[in-house]
Specification:
The protein is mostly beta strands and about 150 residues long. It is built from two helices and eleven strands; from the N terminus they run E-E-E-E-E-E-E-E-E-H-E-E-H. The protein is globular and about 40 Å long. The C terminus is likely disordered.
Amino acid sequence: DPYHGLKLEYIDPTSGGPAMSTISTFLQLLPKGFKTEKYQTTENTTYSVIGGKGRIIVSMDDGEKTIEWEDRDIFVVPCWYPHKFEADTETTIFSFSDKAVQTKLGLYRQRREVRMLDLTVWLTTRTLVRRKSLRACAINPTRSIYRKARRCQQ
């Protein structure tokens, strides 16, 4: 995947859902010299470098911030900040985020930067959830959350 390298999500084999009910956990492998494409998501992610060396470049309002990391470093990327990884050596990273709970509440979003010729486009996806036990769906910012929830229950 050009946005994550090789990324594995830990799942609960009995339900097929996340290993923990409110926290998603991942293991990621970035090959030596690998540079990911820019990625943006609503999940708040904490990364723990198991082995390897490289950097993460986070786009902020006042420019880009580069965080260099190596073995046993821990760093966080807050929600909705575009970021990309660059691996100097083969790197293994463990991460966890609030993606599971955001998905259940219908709040999870992601944007991927796609480059075609000389044009850069951001693709946005979102998750809609409709379950009898949860009865939630994506929130439309122009409507009240309560009105939207009532409409989903019907």
